[in-house]
Sequence to fold (403 residues):
Amino acid sequence: MTVTLRSLETAVPPTILIQSQARDVFAAQPGLTRLGQRLVRTCFDSAAIDTRHTAVAEMSVDFHGPDPVFYDGETGLLLSPSTKVRNDLFTAESTKLFIEAAGKALAACEGLGPADVTHVITVSCTGFFNPGPDYKVVRALGLDASVQRYHLGFMGCYAAFPALRAAKAFCDADPNAVVLVVSAELCSLHVRTSNNPDTIMGSSLFADGAAAAVVTARELPTTAPVVVLDHFETVLTPVGEDSMAWNIGDEGFEMVLDSYVPHIIDEHIVGALAPLLAHEPELGAFPYRDIRHWAIHPGGRSILDKVEAKLELTEEQLVPARETLRNYGNMSSATVLFVLKHILDQPATDPRESICAMAFGPGLTVETGLFTKVSPVSTAPADTDVSADSRALGGELAGAIRG
Fold:
């Protein structure tokens, strides 16, 4: 049985943070030491990020309103709201993103609609509320009240993989299952001024966004590329438990992101990939760059640099991850789905192209996935009858997915 991701869509809040402007705001905060100021400038300038999105409208330097809570545009001060205040905003704003991304994914899925959905899996590590986002999605999109609902909370940047793996398991168990997977993260709710290097690093990287996918084993025609979910693996590195963590504090959630994380990844990435590639020995027998696409979670520029160098990948293979980082920053669990969408949107040169996907999170946990991008590729002359060609391609794609 072949389980396929048939649509993948993203959503971001409207407020855009310009990295250089955010850097200047953070560097100007009172209480920063000279070292803290240097760290702010270094982290922000070396992050390889141009823009990020935030659900906190008042964090824009152009926003001016009464009674600021997160950022006072008149004084230029970053404020310190309580965890409750931050979580209340998460409840309101993440709900919008969950619903928007889920609605777009369903609308983009050919041959399926809200009435077909049997399972909903939501993902987030940046806030909590109940009835949760799984409930909100069901109600807002008019899904059947009997839809099975699951929420994966507080797992961190790798959580899209357990969500997709669960979706595949549901579809393997029931060929008629249609699983809606939705991840939404509001990391910017938890930024704060500090001299702590981990906090500064997080403030320079993290952002807000959502992504949603429809997964099913149903055989359906499609004119767009789809992704076959072939294999998943999880590996815990022997070191790094204290190097990446996500804790709840009185003034928001607190990120631990040690500068040694890229070195841990450099030392253990080959071993982490071994169980995944063991499923396809023919792939493991060749250089890593022979796998066409790499969907790497862009936890930071240095992490991508280490992955590219260690696996001897080409610059082109890291473009989806680097462009996602540059345009959106690190949106925790949603980010790797943005990277995967970038790959899906690229013009295909072959009907079937391998994708190796990878994300890193607390533990240190390495989640990996081996997928196949299946595309309707045309090589017909320009004067070929378009409708006939489209019908032929649809048949070829359906056969490729089944095969």
Notes: The domain at 226-374 is CATH 3.40.47.10 (Peroxisomal Thiolase; Chain A, domain 1). The chain has a mean pLDDT of 91. The radius of gyration is 21 Å. The CA atoms of residues 234 and 330 lie 21 Å apart.
